[in-house]
Design goal:
homodimer, alpha/beta, Molybdenum Cofactor Biosythetic Enzyme, Chain A, Alpha-Beta Plaits, Maf protein, 3 domains
Amino acid sequence: MINVEIITIGDELLIGQVIDTNSAWMAQALNKIGFEVKNMVTVGDNEKDIEKAFDRALLRSSIVLVTGGIGPTKDDITKKILCKYFDCSLRFDGEVLKNMEELFTRSGREINPLTYGQAYVPDASTVIQNKLGTAPATWFECDGKVLISMPGVPSEMKWLMENEILSRLKATFKQDLYIQHKTYWVEGYTESALAMHLDEFEKDLPGNIHLAYLPDLGLIRLRLTGKDENEQALSEAMQTQAAKLQAAIGEKILTEEDKPIESVLGKLLTQKSLTLGIAESCTGGNIAHTLTTVPGSSQYFNGAIIAYSNEVKISLLKVSPADLDKEGAVSETVVTQMAQGVQTALRTDCSIATSGIAGPDGGTAEKPTGTVYIAVAYRDKIISQKFSFGFSREQIIQRATNAALLMLYKLIK
Amino acid sequence: MINVEIITIGDELLIGQVIDTNSAWMAQALNKIGFEVKNMVTVGDNEKDIEKAFDRALLRSSIVLVTGGIGPTKDDITKKILCKYFDCSLRFDGEVLKNMEELFTRSGREINPLTYGQAYVPDASTVIQNKLGTAPATWFECDGKVLISMPGVPSEMKWLMENEILSRLKATFKQDLYIQHKTYWVEGYTESALAMHLDEFEKDLPGNIHLAYLPDLGLIRLRLTGKDENEQALSEAMQTQAAKLQAAIGEKILTEEDKPIESVLGKLLTQKSLTLGIAESCTGGNIAHTLTTVPGSSQYFNGAIIAYSNEVKISLLKVSPADLDKEGAVSETVVTQMAQGVQTALRTDCSIATSGIAGPDGGTAEKPTGTVYIAVAYRDKIISQKFSFGFSREQIIQRATNAALLMLYKLIK
């Protein structure tokens, strides 16, 4: 089995100034071509810690992917350590300079001496050009294993992985294992209730197929993961187990696509040629933002009115001032009027509206922080629901977004 | 020095299904009380890998924080491994059951046998009640070191850290090191140009103060980090260096607050009692969302019109149909009209408008993917600018959001 280890380098990670999103992205990309990540490690810009991480990784893994620490400034020391570790020196690489010159000409800047230093690369490595930045990737081989150093900037790392590194890894390492995941979004169970319901199913699973539960914002993501050396046999075994699972919980499966709810909803809207408008108060634009992260969303998403102030609720969404006064902005009456108002204003088939208290201030005994009303409309059908989403502002906004998208999905499905 | 290691457990992390945000949050919280995180490690739900991670962590760190793998289902094995590792068995804990009963009563559910199992805890541990969930934290001591197991659900981990664990760590470990960070957002330099400019300053830094460069969306975050056993001496040394740094690049420092631009802008709007409205096309709600992640944003943020379709640009933002036709939606003329239109529609002092091509489709030779026009208005002053933000949809939306907030900040500062 080809084990992969990911090492991310940077003090900014260890002090929590930056969240590492690279490792998850790399793991997904590697899984798709049959490589398994067994360890992820983060260390600071510190010689000893980086060397120890290299030692351990090369001992237990065939492929070591390293990101970070190769910028032009003094705090970036990975390149120096790579030279020492692989007992080599720096050599000038004309291709790296040429690539930098193209980048700088395009943006009308001049290469200064520090940037120029990026054209020096460890001479024990194969250099992989980075079309998006000044630091190339470098590929080291030792005892049949490889260690690849890449920039930590996510867009540059992704470009290098997609265009160069994944294909080279596939060519270098014979794929001896196939990995397949199948994920279901299941509604209407708590994690433990679902586990009890699936107890027999789980006991009867073959040894190479594994079931995992991932509770996520009111739903359970249920994941079957299978591994086998024979791709055909694995596909068949996965299909058999998937059929059994569907027989057990079929009606509670929301979707079999391992995609976020905004993609699942977007696909349904496209299929049915429906348009959507959003009226957001407490979620402050997050529903519109979430929908528009999906490429092609302009097909069905007309727009949104973020009505943070009552004035905007009245002027653009035609909410009744009397009802606002009587019931308050956070009420079923107002959120229903918001959903209708945005349907009219943006002339859409469907709409979503939210109004709630995201905190930390604004909560009362009757309507504490976390209280959110959501209404969804599909032509002349409107439904609304009251939720309690906890204490944290971030979590309330995120949960309300998910719940709203899910409510609309169920209404039009 | 008190070293901390963070171990996150879960197959969902290793296959990239979930991004680990817990580690960064914990690192920030620990830094504030003088503890340094030296290693972050992620392993799967696998007995051997978890045990090895415990071994290494307890060898090199005084405090080991573990999250994940303590849910009620079969794939969660951390509790079993903790018993084996600390050579103890499970005991029933009445307080944990009582806490679960309260949680379940509140949400009107019944405790099933699997959930009931959560009341069994390793008897070598001190149990720390988790008011937000069924899995308590457990605290193990061995040879003057501690290992603490917590749930992986971010809200539960944060609640436990803030209310219980940080204070207990402070009481257990004498703080022998103080850590101070000071961060500046610097504009108008590339990373290497700034590093060359600060070469002398950096060479003259005392050994316990370190300078780090973090390029981020068109700005550089410059971070001074100091460590010392004497808090007073550290504060003084940091002040001296901060003054030198300001003398060197004073006019290019955008802010000294280590806060995202939306907070910095929000503070300025509050100070000046200004209101803000947003008109978004290509950013699809992300600017409104970003602004409303800041508590108290309802003070200055009236609302937004997300005009994804041209129809909405015309009907709600009063963009001229003739100009839309002649110049196209992605143009200086249209984005300027959008900024004026939203100022009028939402009656605000300031506004931001965006129109661009976020891709992957829609680009042309003249206006390739990544082309974004941004306009910002402050009363009757309006400025607009054209940008090229690269290839990736996610990056284009994020960069446009930052650039827009920054443009408005500079206009009203």
